[in-house]
Every structure is written in structure tokens, then in C-alpha cells.
Amino acid sequence: MTNSLRPNGQQRAPLPPAQQPARGVPGPRPPRNQSAQHATTGTTGAAAPASKPAARRDAFFDNAKYLAIVLVAMGHAWEPLKGQSRVLEAAYTVVYSFHMPAFIIISGYFSRSFDMRPDRLKRLVTGVAVPYVVFEVSYVLFKRWADGDTSLPISLLDPWYLTWFLCALFIWRLTTPLWKLVRWPLPVALVVAMLASVSPDIGDDLDLQRVLQFLPFFVLGLVMKPEHFQLARRREVRILSVPVFAAALAVGWWAVPRMNAAWFYHRDSAQELGVPWWVGPMMVFALFGCSLLLTACFYSWVPRRRTWFTGLGAGTLYGYLLHGFLVKAGTYWGWFDHARLHTPLGEIFVTLVAATVVTLLCTAPVRRVFRFAMEPSMDWAFKRDATELARERARART
């Protein structure tokens, strides 16, 4: 960067260089008018200098996010049907044991560069807080209209349905600098989750039970490095994952009448689930281990190369939040009550429809339509960073 001369002849001190993220860690999102954009679920990539080409996205993570969001949609579509099919309920249990952990770990991994820098705080507000407010209000209004239930209040302190993840991501992201200071972040996060499982007084505000019980997966993502994902993508892990998933389905089938599926939601304490308090920490630790094992098996089968759905990985938050309206509409309006849907062929049909719908909701046209709510620029609401303004003036003079 060249220096400019002041009118009095003194030379201006050079501006500090733009902060570059560590290797493998994404930085803040570039402006919309730049060609490169690294948007993940609540996380974004770094804007490259104009003189350098943008860093290429890792296809593995986009593929993993897309496949995880498809599993989320399938699980939500199975919920109204699973009560009459033990096999479907077993599959539901297995999917629920790892689909959100797999998604949360990636969210934590791409949050490693987060600090209190103004541009990253702005992205946290526009990419997480604003969509939370918009969709929390929208879901409640939709329920009032579609179901005729006016008793559900609009409360930003009590996330309803899918919006809990945005609330959790906002809190997790804000605490990221703290976890970077802790000597043993993952054990501490596990202790926090265990304590939450025996604390019914936490209540429903901000869905803190889920925030705290899912916290270890986010912290695990924060401490992971690229080579850790490479371990899960080895050929021997991919081979071993087949019997592991087969065993998980068998255990899930056995556990259907014996285990409360609410444990997989991580939204209740042990006392609220009607078991002794000491069961809570045991279940948190056991489910954490099971979820990690199945998540590693899931990652091992995620393609590493670019595929037809790789580009959809940037729109997973759109698919996640928008598909909930269709699932709820089906519940309110009796779409899942048809007898044919409660047969094996009907369950397969519902699964395919759910996968197709959430895929379409992740596409670029849908993202363009709903970007005003999901990724608003909101430049009018924020002050311009003084250092960035000075850099722009310096570039204009060169």
C-alpha cells in the first residue's frame, strides 16, 4: 500500500494491513458484489484481496451440510408416520442421534476465526440474529393462520420449532473467544452439558437446555483441525461404517419400546423425563459418544469431490428454515393422515418427497427470493469501520 502526503508535508503512517485468517480458517463474508462468497450455516468465508483469486471452497463440507440437511428434513417428515412402524422409528432414532451433531460440528469448525471484530459481529447479527427474529415471528403467525391456534404467543425468548438452532448458534458463536482461552474446552463443555441435564430450573428461555446439551459438539468443531476430518474420510473408516450403521439400526429397533426418544432432542432434563437425576449425566456422555461414532461414519461416506449437490451446501440454512413450513402445513392440514402413507411404500414416498423439497429449497433461485430475510445487508444499521474506510480512501488515491 502506498503512503500519501499530508498538506503540511509530513508523511502519513501506513495503515495496518487487513487481518488474514489462519490457514484453513474462514474469515468474514465478502461484499455481495464480489464473485467469491463462502456462506455456510451461520458462517462465512473471507474476502480475498482484489489482487488475489478467491480461495476455493472445500467440496467436502458443502456436501456434508447438504446431506445432513436432507436427513433433517427426512426425520421431520418421518415424525408423523413413525408411531405405526417400528422399523421407521428405529431409522428415525439412528438419524436423530447424529444428524444435528454432524451439522453443529461443521458450524463450530467454521466458527474458529470468530472474534469481536466489527465485521464478524455484523455478520452474526445479519446472518443469525435477524433470521431468528424473522422466522420466529413467521412460524408463530403461520401456526395461528394454518392451525387456528391463537394461544401461542410471539416471544423471542422462547424459540419455537426450528428456530432453536439459530438461537443456539448465536450464543455459541458469541462464546467462541472464551472457548479459545480455556485449557481443556471439550471436557469443560461436556461438564456443562451434564450439569444442564440435571437442572430442570433452567426452563425454556432461549431453549437453554438444547444450547447447553448440544454445546460439546460445537466446541468439538472449534478444536478440530483439517486432518481430523481426513481421518474420518479414510477408506477403512468407510468400510467399517457399514457394520456400525447396521448395528445402530439393530440397537435402534431394540430400543424403540424401551427408550424415550426425547433423549435425542436434548431439550429436557433428567427429572423432566421422569428418571433419577444421575441418569442425565450418564445419558449425555453416552449419547455424545454414540453421536460422534455415527457422525464419523457419516463423514466417511460424504463425497470429497464436487458433485451435482455441492453448490447446494451454501443454502442449507434456507432449506432448514423453509421446509419447516411445509412439514407443519402437512401436520395441520392432515396430509400425513392418509392410510397409504402409513405403508412401507408410502413411507418411502414421503422420504423421497422430503429429500426433493429440501433440495429445491437450497437452490439459488429460492435463495435469491428469501435473501432479504436470511442474509440482509443492513448497511443502514451499522457504522462503517474507520480502518476499512481509510483503506478505501487510500486505494482510491493510488
UniProtKB/TrEMBL annotation:
Residues 59-362 form the Acyltransferase domain. Keywords: Acyltransferase, Membrane, Transferase, Transmembrane, Transmembrane helix. The chain crosses the membrane at residues 60-78, 90-111, 123-142, 154-172, 237-256, 276-302, 314-336, 348-366. One of its GO terms (molecular function) is acyltransferase activity, transferring groups other than amino-acyl groups. Signal peptide: none annotated. The keyword Transferase applies. Residues 20-52 have a biased composition (Low complexity). Residues 1-52 are annotated as: Disordered. This is Acyltransferase family protein.
